[in-house]
Amino acid sequence: MARITHSRLLFVFLVLLVGCSPAPKALVQPLPTVASMAQPPSLDDAANVAINFLEDWRLADYDSLYNTITFSSQESNAKDAFIATYTDAAEAMTLDSLSYTPGASLFRDPQRADIVNFSYNVTFNTRMLGSFDDTDRTMQLVFDKAANAWRVAWTPGDIFALMASGGKLKMELSVPSRANIYDDKGRVLADQSGRVVSVQAVKQDIVDWGACLNLLAPAMGKDPSVIQKIYDRSQAAWLMDLGIIEPAVYDAQHTQMETTCGAQFESRPVRQYSNGTAAANILGTVGYPDEADLPTIEAEGFNSDSILGKSGIEGTWDETLRGHPGARLLIVGPGGDTLREVTRVASTPPQSVWLTIDTDLQLQLQHILASYYASMKLDSQSKGASAVIMDIHTGAILAMVSYPTYDINAFAPFSSLGSTQAAAMIAQLENDPRRPLLNRPTQGAYPLGSVMKLASSMAVADSGVYTLDQPYVCTGIFTREGNFTRYDWLPGGHGHVTLPSAITQSCNPYFYEVGYQLNLVNPEILPSYQQRFFGKGTGMTDLPENPGFIPDPEWKIQNTGLQWTQSDAINIAIGQGEVQVTPLEVVRMVAAIANGGTLYKPQLVAKAGILGEASSYTMIPNAVADANVKQAVFDVIRKGMCDVTTKSYGTAEFVFRNDDALQQIGVCGKTGTAQDGPRPTHAWFASYAPRDNPEIATIVMVENGGEGSGVAAPITRDILDYFFFGTKHDYAPPAP
Q1: What phi and psi, each to the nearest 5 degrees, are found at residue 481?
Q2: Which of 165, 373, 423, 598 has its CA 20 to 30 A from that of 380?
Q3: Distance in angstroms (rounded) separating the CA atoms of residues 332 and 12
Q4: Could you report the per-residue pLDDT of 371-421, keeping only the tens digit for each?
Q5: Greatest CA separation for the chain
Q6: Rg of the chain over all Cα atoms, to the nearest angstrom
Q7: For 357, which DSSP code?
Q8: Are strands 472-474 and 477-480 parallel, antiparallel or unpaired?
Q9: Mean model confidence pLDDT for the chain
Q10: Quick one: which H or E segment has residue 522?
Q11: What is the DSSP string of 476-518?
């Protein structure tokens, strides 16, 4: 930085006295050879040195800062200790930067012409406390004969005045207890009912710090240097907060800690999940911040020891659940007494979150999936499954199960399971080939199979390429030019069908023809309709989601260099080829079919607020898009779906045939059996109910589970029986 001359600085200082910003600092050389002078330099030279001192502080140029202080101050304060005083203070107050302005006075001591007092103000900009001013400060300068120049008569009081008499800076945090997460009926899913033990000790009471450190570090699972740092910064009479131990460690070692460290103990709450398996994929985890996130979270009042939301609802609603810490910056004496409160920031209370899901419903869906896996021995071929229930009029998710599930308590810091069991469980989960940590409903992407025929029906009928009752004779074989031949799943085919009955019977050749005809008219029609529902995500913000993928002619030429063909169109018409969709996308499409075309944003949070007070947030249905499909087309599709469970030729009629209760209200659905290379097919069943006044849409997807009608449909039947009637079934394979 350029330095200014002494004569110019006098002018600058006079301007500063009326409130202008600090000028660039002048060069202060290291101590020169002593030389005598008849008179001390003038006030402008003293002001020059004072401004340089403040500018060095602003720049955190502590080497230059040290060169500005008197020779006697340097003798009393070694350079390393001097620099540490500043860096420790900066760390204690989480200092980002500072600025300064001169005050209204610069005057000689009336008794000593070689002493000058310089008044100034400092603004500290910190991460935890924001910005605060410390005004009416005084810096004393002495004409140092050893340096033959003005120098700062430095003490720690030049950081804050009370530090001159042994005061130390101390940040005192007031971190609100993390708020609860409830289900839709107010039942606790996550709270602070877990308990750990804080270990505290007075520094001067520890006889053998080395032995104490060797005892505490492994008990706390901390690097010894972390605890050592706390010790080094504490005054002799301070009560140090050294770290946290689990209750089991306390039971085993508290006597030894009392003897070796003079330890005191305090119980503290930590996160616990009352039913850790009920909604692990939704609730998510809490934990310590990553190092890269520290500047951001410190600006919000937290530190590296804060436990914050990491994933799931805990992550996306973290700011609501955690509140905002309060903090006080104190100057404390050697005995720990408060000498001054420098500044404070008030805390903001955390707010609880109420989810849209029902715990009992969630647990029953898990039970149903687990019972089918056990009874049908699906574990031998299937890694997992999804089940989702959505309110078709709001987008609220009433249940969302990813199978297999796990106990989310394993990931909580100071887990209620105990650190050993939690670590073993995490290792097992991370190495499990079934990938239980994948939230399948939102992040699993799969070929959709015949459920895609619903979107293909919209494309061909809404575009006008087909009439609403377009006839077709299904012989079981579809042949086109170039020896292009495809077969139906039913040998011999379905005979004469129309659009709704083709949906009901899931006639493949009918939809091969749909893809073929749409491609002849315009290759963009079919993928563009499918992309209204898939390939862009649902807009959910409560959990991360995979957007899925729908190929189209532009994508193919850009990514493969090949032209789009009739084969591509025919493949995507039945949900195969490069098609990848999530179960959440599918249930939202079915909800739109049921409600007349509105695509709602899926939401998991019903409200947020402080218990007993008015809610700060209440879920409002968010219609993010419209399917833009004629109602007459929806009518035809709905008829085809409702016949799936009631007509003798419906692909899932045999599943629902003897369920009188569901037959009474009506279930409308679509089976899907999606090819997955050499592996067994994926089993899908998408539905809505009741038939005449729909309330919910559902999706069940069993990875590599077999046929949609034989696996996913009966699971759906049992889910709907419980949802509408509270009926719990023992697994029984459907009789075809």
Answers
A1: -55, 155
A2: 423
A3: 37
A4: 999 999 999 999 999 999 999 999 999 999 999 999 999 999 888 888 888
A5: 119
A6: 36
A7: -
A8: unpaired
A9: 91
A10: none
A11: SEEEETTTEEEE-SSTT--EEE-HHHHHHHT-HHHHHHHHHHH
**Residues 67-82, mean pLDDT to the nearest whole number:** 94
Beta-strand relationship, 484-487 and 679-689: unpaired
Antiparallel, parallel or unpaired: β 130-144 and 95-108: unpaired
Question: Looking at domain 6-165, what is its CATH homologous superfamily?
Answer: NTF2-like; domain 1 (3.10.450.100)
DSSP 50-117: HHHHHHHHHTT-HHHHHHTB-HHHHHHS-HHHHHHHHHHHHHHTTEEEEEEEEEEEEEE-SS-TTEEE
User: Strands 598-600, 397-403: parallel, antiparallel or unpaired by DSSP?
Assistant: unpaired
Closest CA to 387 of 736, 26, 686, 57: 686
Residue 678 to residue 381: CA distance in whole angstroms = 12
Among 548, 457, 560, 435, which residue's Cα sits nearest to residue 504?
457
Q: Where exactly are the structural domains of the chain? A: 6-165
Query: Cα separation of 73 and 53, whole Å?
Result: 14
Residue that is written with structure tokens 């020896």 in the block:
483
Distances in whole angstroms, Cα of residue 417 to Cα of each of 272, 273, 406, 448, 679? 10, 11, 13, 39, 37
Q: Phi, psi (5° rounding) for residue 504? A: -60, -45
Tell me phi and psi for residue 315, to 5 degrees: -85, -50
- Whether residue 688 contacts residue 594, with contact meaning beta carbons closer than 8 Å, is answered with yes
Angle at 198 between CA 322 and CA 188, to 5 degrees: 40
The kind and range of the H/E element at 407 are none
- Report cis status (omega within 30 of 0) of the bond before 690: yes
Contacts of 603 (CB under 8 A, 6+ apart): 356, 394, 395, 396, 397, 540, 542, 619, 622
The residues, ordered by sequence, that sit 6+ positions from 467 with a Cβ below 8 Å of its Cβ are 461, 499
Question: Quick one: 674 exposed, middle or buried, by C-beta within 10 A (0-12, 13-18, 19+)?
Answer: buried
Q: What is the dihedral of CA 391, 436, 586, 552, to 10 degrees?
A: 150
For residue 134, pLDDT beyond 90: yes
Number of residues written out for the chain: 736
Closest to 446 in 3D by CA, of 123, 148, 673: 673
**What CA–CA distance (Å, rounded) separates 546 from 549?**
9
Query: Please, which contacts does 61-67 make with residues 24 or more away whose CB atoms are closer than 8 Å?
Result: 62/86, 62/87, 64/28, 67/28, 67/29, 67/30, 67/31
- Tokens for 600, please give them: 């709602």
Gap between the terminal Cα atoms of the chain = 87
Distance of CA 97 to the CA centre of its chain: 29
0.90 exceeded by the pTM?
Answer: no
* Residue carrying structure tokens 């436990």: 307
Residues 279-296: what's their mean pLDDT?
91
Q: 159: which DSSP letter?
A: T
Burial class (CB in 10 A: 0-12, 13-18, 19+), 18: exposed
Report whether 392 contacts 688 (CB < 8 A): yes
For residue 213, what are its two tokens?
């450190």
